[in-house]
Amino acid sequence: MLAVLYPLVYIVSSSFSSPRAVVSGQVWLFPVEFSLRAYKSIFRSSQLMTGYYNTVVYTVFGTLINLAFTILMAYPLSVRQFYGRHLFMTLLMITMFFSGGLIPTYLLVKELNMLDTRWAMWLPGALSVFQVIVARTFFQSSIPQELAEAAQMDGCRDTRYLVSVVLPLSKPIIAVMTLMYAVGHWNAYFDALIYLRSEKLFPLQYVLRNLLILNAADPEMLANTAAKIRDQGFEQALKYALIVVASVPVLIMYPFVQKHFVKGVMIGSLKG
Amino acid sequence: MDNFAARGRFGVAERKKAKRRILCIAVALSGLLQFGLRRPRSRAAATATTVGRHDARRRAANGSRVIAPPKIRRHWELYLLILPPVLYLIIFKYVPMFGVQIAFKDFNVVQGIWGSPWAGLKHFEAFFQSPNFRLIIRNTIVISFYSLVAGFPVPILLALALNEIRNGLFKKSVQMITYAPHFISTVVMVSIVILMLTPHVGVVDRLYSLFGKDMTNFMGIPEYFKSIYVWSGVWQEMGYASIIYMAALASVDPALYEAAKMDGAPRWRKIVHIDLPSLIPITVILLILNLGNIMNVGFEKIFLMQNPLNLSSSEVISTYVYKVGLVGANFSFSTAVGLFNSVVNLVLLIAVNFFARKASETSLW
């Protein structure tokens, strides 16, 4: 456990330390020469803030689309009397084992004129087969069949039943799915790499990649250190701060749903 | 805000076109479906929505589907509900599957997917004969196997250990902390790795120099690449992967433990004779899935960790497909490489599943 914890603590500490301390290797466990400079310059950078804004947009709407599609797919598949259920199931499973691959999908997105639009970030991954199966299993196993029969007796249609009986009963699984999909969107950079061209649309992770891994520092962010060009130490501290800023929202979110998601994974494992 | 506005302005005509095109594809496909591929569904939809009783009775007289039509009618809303995701599947998953044909063609943008001339197996041959072929395949397989061998037992051990902890709070906090890295994005993960391994500044290099070793540029040395990749992956995923085993352990019948206690079995005996056997089914299933994916090395992380210095050890199929295909605009060749990969995967999965069923009666299907 310590092995897992140490890098995390180290990153956080470094991000709060002064650049000089980071470079000279004084930081081992706790912050040295506490400083918030790195954070200040992050929040001044418009590139990063645009990235943040975009990521929030992608995450919120993307997750909503995901949820809608997953539930719409999973619910009918869970109804035993649904004629043609196996056909749809097969249709779904095939996509899990065989896919068109990168290039044909790219060509399709291009053909649909979705290149370099927000749609390219939302639609191609709108449905995860795994999540559908998890949701379906949940609907099947945790919602008593008698409810459906009773509702039918009262003249309740399927849609109404789904909205007013099934969904309220499925809060745990919906929480898990939301978390999974949201984390997926939050952390995704690959789709942006393929489909997006214009800087205005880049999500946070893509910006991060440019800054952290390709080492292309945002001039705006370093502007206030112009006097010390090639302020290597500051760049280092900046990177640590960036990492913290990018990961914190997700890490904050997850303890709240943790209780649920262990359950969700368990349901998924019943029929993987 | 003005992002949206700007897109709105330039996009209306474009999007209309796109919409029409989606519609076209959808119509064409539904035609195709009616043609016979997916007979029951189209028939069901027709009965359910428009044609109604007359048609149903006629079909009932036919004898083959006496029960089906009323069933369908009762649940017609379900078909409506499932329509959007099914359309989605068809458009975004099945259309690209037809697009795979460009692996056998000389694709060019002007003529499109259907119009481009056939090229036979040219691209496959080119791939097999290319000097990169052996390197890429070897890297892919080695990285996969290494990940599997290193990464598979760790979550099991972690789960067994966690299962032995009786102190609730401590157990909870260990779980919290070990799950956390799973939620860190690949980009951040890789930057952490790179930062920690940076010469002079990173922790690892400073540790090295403490022990009197020279400064090392870890990311630049091909021999280190695979280990860095694999062990950082283990670090990130072990907690999360252990959840599934924890769940299996939680479902063990407590009576077994009590019996063991009565017999005076020490801890390790309990682990060996009760815990481990109860993990076997789920382990086999996960192993099958993993072996079926042996040729699929995740693109994202490798791509981010690549640099020109370690390329000889880090180029795998997926990154190669990306580079040749999208960066190099060599669509057909790259699709052929991707298709080759999918087919190998599929065959592997089926084969492994077959053997698992023979050997242990646990299998995917």
Automatic annotation (TrEMBL), chain A:
Residue ranges annotated for the ABC transmembrane type-1 domain, each copy included: 52-255
Keyword annotations: Cell membrane, Membrane, Transmembrane, Transmembrane helix, Transport
UniProt cross-references to InterPro entries, sorted A to Z: MetI-like, MetI-like_sf
Subcellular localization: Cell membrane
Principal location class: membrane
UniProt key word Transmembrane helix: yes
Topology relative to the membrane: Multi-pass membrane protein
UniProt keyword annotation of Ubl conjugation present: no
TM spans (from-to): 56-75, 87-107, 119-139, 160-183, 237-257
Family: Belongs to the binding-protein-dependent transport system permease family.
Name recorded for this polypeptide: Sugar ABC transporter permease
Higher taxonomy: Bacteria, Bacillati, Bacillota, Bacilli, Bacillales
